[in-house]
Each structure stands twice: as C-alpha cells, then as structure tokens.
Design brief:
The structure is a homodimer. By secondary structure, the first copy, chain A, is of the alpha/beta class. In chain A, 38% of the residues lie in helices and 22% in strands.
Chain lengths: 281, 281
Amino acid sequence: MRTVTDVEAMQSYAEEARREGKVIALVPTMGFLHEGHLSLIRLADEAADVVVTSIYVNPTQFGPSEDVDQYPRDIDRDTTLAQQAGTDVLFVPTDKAMYSQGYQTFVTVENLTRGLCGAFRPTHFRGVTTIVTKLFNIVRPHISVFGQKDAQQAIVIKRMTRDLNFDIEIKVAPIVRHEDGLAMSSRNKYLTPQQRSQAPVLYQSLCAANKMIEEGERNPNVVKKHTKDMIEAIASSKIDYIEIVNAETLEPVREIRGNILIALAVYIGKARLIDNILIKV
Amino acid sequence: MRTVTDVEAMQSYAEEARREGKVIALVPTMGFLHEGHLSLIRLADEAADVVVTSIYVNPTQFGPSEDVDQYPRDIDRDTTLAQQAGTDVLFVPTDKAMYSQGYQTFVTVENLTRGLCGAFRPTHFRGVTTIVTKLFNIVRPHISVFGQKDAQQAIVIKRMTRDLNFDIEIKVAPIVRHEDGLAMSSRNKYLTPQQRSQAPVLYQSLCAANKMIEEGERNPNVVKKHTKDMIEAIASSKIDYIEIVNAETLEPVREIRGNILIALAVYIGKARLIDNILIKV
C-alpha cells in the first residue's frame, strides 16, 4: 500500500491505472476506521483492481457548532487497518489542498437533503456532495462504496452521481453492528461506559418497530410512538428525529407500504448517533 | 465527423479515446453557431486530437422570463459549420437525457456570480456551472474552450474547474467581432435592421472608455458615466449594467489600476447583448 497526500499525484496515478484498464474503487472515509469502514474496503477489494481509501475529515460537512476539531483521528492505526483490509492507495489530502484560498464552489442535491438529518444539519449534505464530487474527480473511480448506516447520504450520493453524469457505480454496504446491536460509528467513542451500555436501545427500538410492522401495524405514528417511548426511557437520550419514509424519495409515508426506511438520529450524551432499517412491506 | 446524441455512447467514446492516449477538447455551445464559436472550435482543433463540440440549449441557465424556447436553432447549418471548423464529434443530447425525472443536483460558484450578469440573472450561472459539470463528466475532456465574450462565465468556469478538481485546462479565446465592432452573438438575430446599425455603440463605448483610461482617467465613475451617455444616446437601448471590476475577483474597483475588466449588458430592443474589454493599467 502507498500513501498519497498530493492531489495531482493522486490524479496522475488514477489516470495511469485507468489507461492500463484497471478498475478503481474509492472508499471515502473520515478516518478513525472501524469494522464498518473495513467492510466497505473489503467489498471494494472484491469488485476492483485498485482500492483507494480516502481519509479526510471534511470541514464543510460540519456545522458551526459541530465537532470537526474534536472528531477522532488516528492515522497510524488507520494506515494499518486500511492496508490489512485491502487498500492499495491511502489518499490523505490536506485542508489546504482541498479548500484553497478563494474556494467557493458547492454541489447541492435539493429535495432529498431537506428531511431527516438535512433538517437538523442544514449545510451537512452540501459539504458531503461537494467533497465527494472532488474525490470523484481526483481518484476517478469506476466504483465507489458507501455504508447503509448513513442511509440518507447513500441515497443523496446516488442521486448526485446520476444527475451529474458521473460514470461511477455506487455500491452500498450493509450496516456492521457490535454484538449487542449498536451500529459501528467513530462517534461511539464519545459515549461514557454507562451510555455505551444503553446505546443499543436505538437498534432495539428499530427491531421493535420492525416487529410491529410484521405483525400488521401500518400506521407510522403508532410505530414511531413506540420507538420514541423505548428511546426516551434512557435518561441521557435526546431525539433529533425518528422518521418512517419512502426508501427512495425519503418522504414521510402516511401508511406503511412498499419499500420503507425507518431512520433515527438520537443524542446519547454528547454523541449524535444515527441508525436505520430498510423494510419491504 | 460523427453526431452523438446518447450520453452513454459519448462517455464510451471518450473513455476509449483517453485509453488510446488521445487528447480531447470540448467546446460547449448552445448552437446557432457563428464565427465566435468557430474560432473556439479551431483553437480546440489546434490543441487536441479529438474535438467534441456540444450543442445544447440548456434550460437551467435561462430565467423564467427568458428566451429558452425562442433561442435560435439551426442544427443542419450548425452541423456543416462545426465540421468545417474541425469538430470530430458533435454531441447533441436531448433534454430528457440531460435532466431526467427527479433531477435535483446543482453546482454553484458563490462570490464570482453575485455581480455583473449574476445580479440580473440570479439562476443563470448555477445553470451554466451545472451543465458544464455534466458535460465535463460525459465528454471527459483534457481541454475545454470558452469565449472571452462571456467574460464572467469564463472566470466562473475556471474557478469551478479548480475548486472541484477537474483535471481540465480551460482556454479562453478572444472576442470575435463584426467589421463594425459588434461582438458576434446568436442573440444579434433578434435585432431589427435599424437596431443592428446602432448596436456597434456598445463596442464604441468600450473603446472610448479605454481611450479615457489611456489618457489618464482613473476614476471608474467618470469612465462609466461617459460610457453610459454614449449608449443612452440610442433610443432603443436599456442598460442592465456597465461595470469596471477587478479582472480576477470581478469586484468593482474604486480606482482604475491593475488588471481591469470593463463589462456591460445592454438591451438593444429585445436583444440583451453583452460585451467587455480587458485592460492592464
């Protein structure tokens, strides 16, 4: 594995690889890698000749009151883990290279970013689609892999890729969970031991919602109420949203039918955690 | 020359050409080609192995009250002219292919689009940067050629290309003028014979401004006033703006010094015409 920090060097490498007919897969990350990221890298490794994993804590996807400086970093550990999982090139650009003086261009996906996390983090997805556009242009992948944990992000990126005619296949890999059901996340690091022991309630509440629907419940408000009650039983929790939406349009449903996404964002202490399940009714 | 209408066919062609090591140049146009466009195609032909000229009247760069349906079209004549000037591939996509159902992704350059034409056509440059991003992703050029006539557009595209890390060289070709000085434009077609005979006042006013500056005038308001008076002597004229700005930032200058752009947009009858000169003081 080689590490590349220079944008032009990464572009030259990609151009050369493409000219040799190699298939490039990109796994964009913000580092502090866990099993979730590694599953994306492994999936990329199965699908492509060259796996590029990018590590970049992208400032434009953090809000003014958010944790960009506190976001956990461990580049040495990441380097080892990324290599073991099958990365060929670790791309680690600097802030200065990514957002040079006078930077002022942004990519926006409109409707799909209005609800769910977009309602609570108004500039977040603009930052995500902008940095992913830049990474697509630098790494020039044939394939890019995202995690289902960020369900809205995956749908937004698919839409952007199609709308802007990027000739790139977007793969979405399933959520990787700890044994107790908590979805892997770099932000789990912010949990105290007690909060960590309580955090699996998020997935438990989603499983309970799924069970209610399997047993015939079709009213989203009834299902959301039950989910909400389970989470609010944890004293340190603060719910941003629990939504039951159409899995393609991300619009709230009036009746639970078709392809459904149940998604939530909940603070447990200082950690804002997200989780979701896809259901076909 | 071949004509391609299908997006995927264009992408495959470009991918293959790149793999063969050919240099691709893109000349994006809205058709109704004149000598200005042809000069861009010739410049592209000198610089590249494969010249792709795109013809697409892009609806997203027209405002709600603007002339998208009335915009002049003549694909047969364009085909002949584009070929004669050195086009290898004429790319003529359909609206349906470019903006499919559910389209919602836009590219925005912020500061540079606020003044000049951006102040009068608030969604225009968003439409331009969006369609050019799409064309860049479809045609995958090494070089793309734009005209100095659309001075603000050229600067906005350069900024976007740099900000989004497109590995593309932007070339800007000088304004081509009729013998009487009127800048070539598809919109000149809207002029009545009388208006056509009056329209050269735009360039004459810019030349007069240049002369004042050569003779020592450094106050932009004095120069603008003289320019304005010349244009307003034409009864059918209505000025959108006459601005004297820094040629890189496009910000109005208080004193005429350095690299200066004098740009104007003026209605002559129904035709909104633009023109500009670059001055180094």
